[in-house]
Amino acid sequence: MQRTNISAQRATLWFIVAVLTTVTVVCGAFLALDTEIPEWFPTVGRWIPAIVALVVIRAARLPEGLAYWWKLRPGGWKRLLAGAAVSVLVLFAVYLVAALGAQLLGVASLIDAADLASVALMVPVFAVVFAVSTFGEEVAWRGFLQQAWSGQGFWRSSTLIALVWVAFHVPLHGAMAVQGTLPWSTAVSATLALLPLGILLSAFVVRWGSVWPAVFAHAAPLTTLNLLADPGELGLGDQLAVVAIGSALMLAAAHLLSTRRRAQLR
């Protein structure tokens, strides 16, 4: 068992170096060739972590199999569906309350009721459709890394994973900002917002014992800005204020979910 743990820790270091190097080289190539990053790349690029994790797991010859390291066992269909539904609902609620908080503080205004209803109805549909893409990220970050670092405790492991996840997005967001396809203010705020989101996604995995709830929650193509009127007019300061509100809510939700899971295991 101790040898397995040592191999797993070494494998996580290989994974982190390889995945960050890969995304940096790919994004750097787009810049060097003066080629605009295509719209489909962020979606397809989510599979880079899964491919790298698969290669590392096989190269390190880790025991237990891929289902174990990627935390693919849902514990039954009912548990899978319940975990996915609750996780998507929690994330939507966080974004909605954050948008209401932004309106209360005078930072921005909430979209009208009709648009809000349309967004709410489409979230579950897109969560299923885009799960094919987010699967490639979640099995690596909240699957492989979280499984390997589970002995470090929830907050330490989830924060470390989220930090690596943020670092993975820096080359992409930076390259898009340089090319002018993503405003610098949005690149900064969107990158920072990934840290609390990553911790919350880890909490979903801990609560339900499977990566699937995080896959579907991550697939919901939504942020607080989508629930605000004229988000493009918000400056960096206002965007950071929105991120701060959402971050506090996400961390609170992560605390509740992870604490409840620990209580159930006693």
UniProtKB/TrEMBL annotation:
<keyword id="KW-0812">Transmembrane</keyword>
<dbReference type="InterPro" id="IPR042150">
    <property type="entry name" value="MmRce1-like"/>
</dbReference>
<keyword id="KW-1133">Transmembrane helix</keyword>
<feature type="transmembrane region" description="Helical">
    <location>
        <begin position="240"/>
        <end position="257"/>
    </location>
</feature>
<keyword id="KW-0378">Hydrolase</keyword>
<feature type="transmembrane region" description="Helical">
    <location>
        <begin position="153"/>
        <end position="172"/>
    </location>
</feature>
<feature type="transmembrane region" description="Helical">
    <location>
        <begin position="44"/>
        <end position="60"/>
    </location>
</feature>
<keyword id="KW-0472">Membrane</keyword>
<keyword id="KW-0482">Metalloprotease</keyword>
<feature type="transmembrane region" description="Helical">
    <location>
        <begin position="116"/>
        <end position="141"/>
    </location>
</feature>
<dbReference type="Pfam" id="PF02517">
    <property type="entry name" value="Rce1-like"/>
</dbReference>
<dbReference type="InterPro" id="IPR003675">
    <property type="entry name" value="Rce1/LyrA-like_dom"/>
</dbReference>
<feature type="transmembrane region" description="Helical">
    <location>
        <begin position="211"/>
        <end position="228"/>
    </location>
</feature>
<feature type="domain" description="CAAX prenyl protease 2/Lysostaphin resistance protein A-like">
    <location>
        <begin position="123"/>
        <end position="220"/>
    </location>
</feature>
<protein>
    <submittedName>
        <fullName>CPBP family intramembrane metalloprotease</fullName>
    </submittedName>
</protein>
<feature type="transmembrane region" description="Helical">
    <location>
        <begin position="184"/>
        <end position="204"/>
    </location>
</feature>
<keyword id="KW-0645">Protease</keyword>
<feature type="transmembrane region" description="Helical">
    <location>
        <begin position="80"/>
        <end position="104"/>
    </location>
</feature>
<dbReference type="GO" id="GO:0008237">
    <property type="term" value="F:metallopeptidase activity"/>
</dbReference>
<feature type="transmembrane region" description="Helical">
    <location>
        <begin position="12"/>
        <end position="32"/>
    </location>
</feature>
